[in-house]
């Protein structure tokens, strides 16, 4: 088969017959545009939520806990046994010797009652290793307050960061702004914090017994966690203050940040084996194992993407098939003439497949170029919006998805070749004499 002749004839036929398929090209281009934009939107938002959990939420890559039940292995915070001081020393030794571990932070969950001279309310929050949490959050997320100072900058004794809702309940002036990560080269916005002057009193039930303990602390910062229900109860304090309040040396969990490029599954399995060999009754989870919102969000977007991909494929294939029937049926005598001149059925099949492929590739490239233009425009515009259930604005992002562009182009060309084969085979079944004798 003469490849050069085949390519030349197919391109000439496309230029001659292509106008008949403009409607098909437009439908396919729009479908491909929608598919590529949705894939970019999904990638951008999945990465945004990953950062929200791993950096802003300071989970890092791995979480080390002691689940007390099967439910606790599936639901975060459901019945975790505390990690004792002796266990912490052995865990720290193992983590310090692992070159893939960049940072490790201890977390202690606390809850109780908080009061000042005016009001009393419930609180729930954490004590944390402040500097290690700062390392996990990184430069973009370390300045984690919308007013006052973050814990890692605070020098006053017994500092306390409050959620926006809790701060408002306690009589503080709360700025109506949400948290936003610091962009490279940007200086975080510092705002003064205005709260009633008297110290806050925190009351809790201590670990191990039913005794009550209380302490006083100074509100030094206001934080926007991103979810109103959490903001209404949130308290964050240094680990030493939290342990003193609960009268314990125990902690709830470890958050571990790994080096860039580290294999999460391999590192999880390696640490689990080391902990088991050391006789430590702990479980290592990936950050996403029990991140219900992340899993649900990813599932919903994946469902939309798969649906759009199926619709785009069906619409594109049926449009090409319809255009192929209309186009090739009118050229039956042309094909019969080619066969009478000695060209094989295989040559004619390849010719029509190439013609359809050129048209489909043009439509795909048009849709992809349109998606590239819109993606660039969205990234430059830096549009923000506040999702339902969120207390802060997030960027409307569309990411570059080169593998999706390439796969879309490949699949569209294959579908075009298949769409050409169905009517062409039907036309070529007719005898040459019968086709040429038709008026």
UniProtKB/TrEMBL annotation:
Residues 306-431 form the ABC3 transporter permease C-terminal domain. It comes from the Bacteria. Its main location: membrane. InterPro entries: ABC3_permease_C, Lipoprotein-release_system. It is found in: Cell membrane. The keyword Mitochondrion does not apply. GO terms for biological process: lipoprotein localization to outer membrane. The chain crosses the membrane at residues 21-42, 304-326, 347-378, 398-422. GO terms for cellular component: plasma membrane protein complex. It holds the Pfam family FtsX. It is a multi-pass membrane protein. Keywords: Cell membrane, Membrane, Transmembrane, Transmembrane helix. Belongs to the ABC-4 integral membrane protein family. LolC/E subfamily. This is Putative ABC transport system permease protein.
